[in-house]
Amino acid sequence: MRVFFALLISVSGLAQSVQPDSVSKSKKKVTYFATLQTASLIGCNDCSKGKEVTFSGAIVSGVRIKAFGVGVGVGHDSYRDANTAPIFMVTSWDIIRRKNALVLQVQYGTSLKTWRYFPYDYEEYGYKSTAGGTMFNPVMGYRLQYEKVQITFGVGYKYQVITNRYEYPTWRWTGTEYVPGDPSRRNVLMELSRLVVSMAVGWN
């Protein structure tokens, strides 16, 4: 986790060094960018209950060198039974680079925080906590440029790992009575796969 914060500080420092004066000297080969992204996550865990359409949002900042970009981001992803707050690195490549561009973007990271959503007033029996894991999100998009503003429409795939942890009470016989024993523990791994339809607004 410390690596991501170190990268965030590094990218921010690099961005500060690429202010208009230095950018103009390099003919804008290096530019700073910031992007606000929203998306729909489409898919299901138990498809017998039907498809789910949930929300995703993220803020990304970084630098772009000619056709390549690198940055870091934080966001929020909602699923039917869980929510995650991912932190990630992002790389992008302008496949066709003109005023408007065909863009391939890849996000890779983990979750700062993950929590379950229970539609009832009580939690699932034995439930203790939820932990997030790997997040992988490639997207193919088309970026429209108008002066300093960019709007990108994209379609991609999101993969997120979530682990639910459970503990169940046990009892042991001492010869005279039953007393609590060590709890029985169980981890349930969930691999969430979603189609992503996104729109991002950015500035550079």
Question: What can you see in these coordinates?
Answer:
This protein is mainly beta and 204 residues long. It has one domain: Porin (Beta Barrel). It has two helices and ten strands, in the order H-H-E-E-E-E-E-E-E-E-E-E. The strands form two sheets. The chain has an eight-stranded antiparallel barrel. It has a two-stranded antiparallel sheet with strand order 8-9. Strand 4 (82-97) and strand 5 form a beta hairpin. The longest helix is centred in the N-terminal third of the chain and has 16 residues, at 2-17. The two termini are 27 Å apart.
Order of helices and strands: HHEEEEEEEEEE
Secondary-structure-based class equals: mainly beta
**Large-scale geometry:** elongated
Low-confidence stretches: 1-26
Cα-atom Rg, whole angstroms? 22 Å
For the largest sheet, list the strands in their spatial order: 1-2-3-4-5-6-7-10
- CATH class label: Mainly Beta
Assign the CATH architecture: Beta Barrel
- The overall average pLDDT, rounded, is 84
Tally of DSSP β-strands:
10
CATH topology: Porin
**Estimated helix fraction:** 10-25%
The biggest sheet, with number of strands, parallel, antiparallel or mixed sense and barrel status, is: 8 strands, antiparallel, barrel
Distance between the termini: 27 Å
